[in-house]
Design a protein that fits this description.
394 residues, Aspartate Aminotransferase, domain 2, 39% helix, seven-stranded mixed beta sheet, Aspartate Aminotransferase, domain 1, alpha/beta, three-stranded antiparallel beta sheet
């Protein structure tokens, strides 16, 4: 299998697995217990909290709350801040290209009486910080803008947007799931709440975290025994959190090495595919994007058809977010770029990672032209002059 779907899932780092293993069989105590069986778990929890907090440059008085994943962290950030601030205002500002783990909680808040302004993005897939500023009113209690888009890889101007927000009256939340481990993500960017995911840095699935800057007021979404600063009750998933911590430490150590590796392969893929296949377009800005992401639109063919053809060669890729892959509706992200249904359905998303090799990239670049040529020959959308040219070259 040639794996080009690192945006949906990553293999567990060996270092993370080795760190987790003792907490399944040896140190199985509850971290909230006061006896000595709970001490190793409690200490491991603190150590992992420090490792993940360090990855995002958290200060001593900031909080890092462990969750079951990025979706829960987003729900805690959005609902926790909005509900706490309801007496001051009921307006939230976000963008038109947010992940469903942000979109769906915001829709739930709308049913509770909140209003949400979804700022459009430029054709490049980048939101204008000035447009976000203009959307903020005296009633705005929260701004949520993703650090980087999970489908088209565009990096958003978080630092610029942070200049218009305030941690006490209108905090800025950013979902950094797609960015963490691929580019530097640091609390110095000005975000007051940062959503993180273990799975996206080669850690175990089902673990995430929410960074909360000192001074940000938030109320819990889950109630119970008061774990995680009273903001996320329930016994912590100690093995998973330990693995998250180990993965975070590894990600920090390897960040620049991984970035350089992925950037080189990204350029190799984009240049190779666009040179070999006509009528191909890169979705999103080429420069201000994640180094692992390549999202291409192929005129006159459907991305789903390309995916099915690639499966013959044991190649795994995607056409968009794995969280919305069960729907036949066009990507809301590509639609926000101004693409019609036909254009949005013609996209292929390729995500590379730490273990991707140049040889694997070259195989994909070699196989893809023949697949696209065959599909265009069969497509009624292909222009006659291109059809004729393809037939003559077959």
């Amino acid at each position: 299998m040639l794996y080009f779907d690192y945006g949906a899932g990553m293999p567990l780092a060996r270092e993370a697995f080795e760190a987790m293993e003792p907490f399944f069989f040896e140190h199985y105590g509850n971290p909230s217990s006061t006896h000595e069986c709970g001490t190793p778990a409690h200490e491991a929890l603190d150590r992992a909290r420090g490792q993940v907090a360090s990855l995002v440059g958290a200060g001593e008085k900031d909080r890092l709350i462990f969750t079951s994943g990025a979706t829960e962290a987003n729900n805690l950030a959005l609902k926790g801040v909005a509900r706490r601030a309801r007496k001051r205002g009921t307006h939230i500002v976000t963008t038109a290209i947010e992940h469903w783990a942000v979109n769906t909680p915001l829709k739930a808040l709308e049913t509770e009486g909140f209003t949400v302004t979804r700022v459009p993005v430029e054709p490049s897939g980048i939101v204008d910080a000035g447009a976000v500023r203009d959307a903020i009113t005296d009633e705005t209690v929260l701004v949520s803008v993703m650090y980087a888009n999970n489908e088209i890889g565009t990096l958003q101007p978080i630092s610029e947007i942070a200049a218009y927000t305030n941690p006490k009256t209108c905090p800025l939340h950013t979902d950094a799931t797609a960015a963490i481990g691929r580019v530097p993500v640091d609390a110095s960017c000005g975000a007051d709440l940062i959503t993180l995911s273990s799975n996206d840095i080669y850690g175990p699935k089902g673990v995430g975290a929410l960074y909360v800057r000192e001074g940000v007021r938030i109320e819990p979404v889950m109630h119970g025994g008061g774990q995680e600063y009273g903001l996320r009750s329930g016994t912590e998933n100690v093995p998973g959190i330990v693995g998250f911590g180990a993965a975070a430490e590894l990600a920090a150590r390897r960040l620049h090495e991984d970035m350089a590796h992925m950037r080189a392969l990204q350029e190799r893929l984009i240049d190779g595919i666009t040179a070999a296949i006509p009528a191909v377009h890169l979705n999103g800005d080429r420069e201000r994007r994640l180094p692992n992401n390549i999202n291409l639109r192929f005129d006159y063919v459907e991305g789903e058809s390309i995916l099915l053809s690639l499966r013959v060669y044991d190649v795994a890729a995607s056409t968009g977010s794995a969280c919305s892959s069960k729907t036949l509706a066009p990507s809301h992200v590509l639609s926000a770029l101004g693409q019609n249904n036909e254009e949005a359905h013609g996209s292929l998303q390729i995500n590379i990672g730490r273990h991707t090799t140049a040889a694997e990239v070259d195989i994909l670049v070699k196989k893809l032209p023949a697949i696209v040529r065959r599909l265009r020959l069969l497509s009624p959308l292909t222009p006659r002059d291109m059809q004729k040219e393809l037939e003559e070259s077959s």
